[in-house]
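[Q] Does anyone have a clean structure-token version of this?
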Amino acid sequence: MLKLTVKGRELFDESTESFITVKDTVLKLEHSLLSLSKWESKWHKPFLDDKQKTAEEYLDYIQCMCIGQDIDANVLYCLTDSDMKKIIKYIDDPMTATTIDDKRNSKRGSRIVTSELIYCWMVTLQIPFECEKWHLNRLLTLIRVCNIENSPKKRMKGKDILKQNSNINHQRRQMLNSMG
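[A] Here you go.
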């Protein structure tokens, strides 16, 4: 979880031509599957794609990340560049010591990853739904580790199988003092 103290200030609302006072607010943010799901249900598009998000979409994602509180949307307009850098650093943090040496493309590839697909992976891999509150990068790493651990081991080539079987047969003939 990332905690940020956003300094309040006065904002001008052009639609009502009035000033709005925003109080100091402590934001508790969690980049999780739950946040992702909330955002995608509102915007009807994937968040994890490589497409640029508008400022409005990104601020809305930050609001979806807020846990345990309903915040005044105006607080988000008080975020400083420093606050945004902290949020981006937090979102990009792997939140795990696990590293995966993947010879294939380490990116998600051309597949569009949505919250429903991640939930599907969780069901398939029997990962409990309480993990939807984990940092999203940690959850995705767990999914990758489960896939690696559950993937079939490399199969032997046909000539290697024949050679192994020949060696086993030779050992058995020696053990049993047999010719055949």
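[Q] Thanks! Anything notable?
[A] Helices lie at 33-43, 55-65, 81-92, 115-124, 136-150, 158-176.
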